[in-house]
Amino acid sequence: MPIEVKIPAVGESISSGVVSVWHKKSGDFVNAGEPLFTLETDKVSTEITAEKAGVLDALVPEGQEVKIGEVVATIDDSQEAPAVEQKAKPEEKKAPEAEKKAAVAAVAARGPASTLPAAVPLSPAVRRIVEEEHLEPEKIAGTGKDGRLTKGDVLAVAEKKPAGEAVSLPPRAAEDRQSADGRVARKRMSPLRRKIAAQLVMSHQTTATLTTFNECDMSAVQELRSKSQEEFTKKHGVKLGLMSFFIKAAVEALKAVPVVNGRIEEEDFIQNNFYDIGVAVGTERGLIVPVIRDADKKSFAELEREIADYAAKARTGKLKIEDLQGGTFTISNGGVYGSLMSTPILNPPQSGILGLHKIMPRPTAIDGKVEVRPMMYLALSYDHRAIDGKEDVTFLIKVKEGIEDPQKLPLDF
């Protein structure tokens, strides 16, 4: 009996998703653990894999929205993996045209077609031809056991089908539409992008957001990275980046100004005494924020490995919903895209988000002299209902001090 492939529960608040792409097609043999399709939800995209080996029969098209628990495919585990084809002798080969003509003759000899019993299932090979040729299987006479359609049956009908015959394609949940003159295109937003849009609007409507700016001299960090990079990479197998310094500096600043690490919940203020830092990662589907748990307890190497791992998972759609939940504070680096200054938007229910920007050589006054230094603007957006201006400024200065003098940070190279 075919095994049903159902949409799994990927989070307690997620009720549906979109089958964004099939990695296997109907009729393909799949092994247990192989990815079947990518499910895109309003929070994360993830690959759904085969639980058992067998022949796949996909039941929904790409782009269709599906509910949690809905059956989207079946796997016939009674069929084995195809054997490696042996090279046939020339006289044993049969041209596709000859096969079709033979099937046509067989159908003609049988006489008028009978109606296929509705309960008789189609084999993957037959279903594929039916879908590709846009045939109506219930109107085709089957010559197989119990009236089943064979490959020859559908090939014969496909051969006789009039050219240019109108067909109806499987419906898609989100068709692209374009104006006749091509000047305007309408495209349904993905669940992830719709969720991001709703979160941004909700953030503005439910918080009293204010942003404060400062700048920091990146000379010391750049020098330390340059001096330690080779040994660090050789020892830990990962490069020493900038984000680990800012995570360390942010944790020290959160310890000095605890209110920034809290949140408002109805009429209460919740003070978090742990440091789960969200690191915003840009993907083709939008911005997502995986969380580094207990960042205060992790070394530079552990932080860099976790950041790299999250970035790889985000690119391949393998992040889990648990990876995105429960952060207490967020860091977003717009500098990687060339941003010089911006006002980051809060990630509710958090009360603060630190924005990093592009490092630019700028003239700066140093001990009464003007020097060109690699400078970065910092931005802290915060919920003014929970955090006062003094606390906000103090936090930014603490981050600045940690970056301009890394020896103040718990270095553990």
Structure write-up:
The chain is of the alpha+beta class and 413 residues long. Helices cover 28% and strands 25% of the residues. It is built from eight helices and 21 strands. Strands 11, 14, 17, 18, 19, 20 and 21 form a seven-stranded mixed beta sheet that branches. Strand 4 and strand 5 form a beta hairpin. Helix 1 packs across helix 3, helix 6 crosses helix 7 and helix 6 packs across helix 8. The radius of gyration is 30 Å and the shape is elongated.
Order of helices and strands: EEEEEEEEHHHEEHEHHEEEEEEHEEEEH
Report, as a whole number of angstroms, the end-to-end distance.
57 Å
Q: What does the largest sheet look like?
A: 7 strands, mixed
Strands, total number:
21
Q: What proportion of the residues is helical, as a percent range?
A: 25-40%
Q: What is the typical, i.e. mean, pLDDT?
A: 83
The total of helices stands at: 8
Overall geometric form:
elongated
Radius of gyration: 30 Å
Q: Which residues form runs of ≥5 with pLDDT under 50?
A: 85-95, 109-117, 163-174
Q: Briefly note the structural class of the backbone.
A: alpha+beta
Give a short overview.
This protein has 413 residues and is an alpha+beta fold.
Features:
413 residues, alpha+beta, 7-stranded mixed beta sheet, 4-stranded antiparallel beta sheet, 8 helices, 28% helix
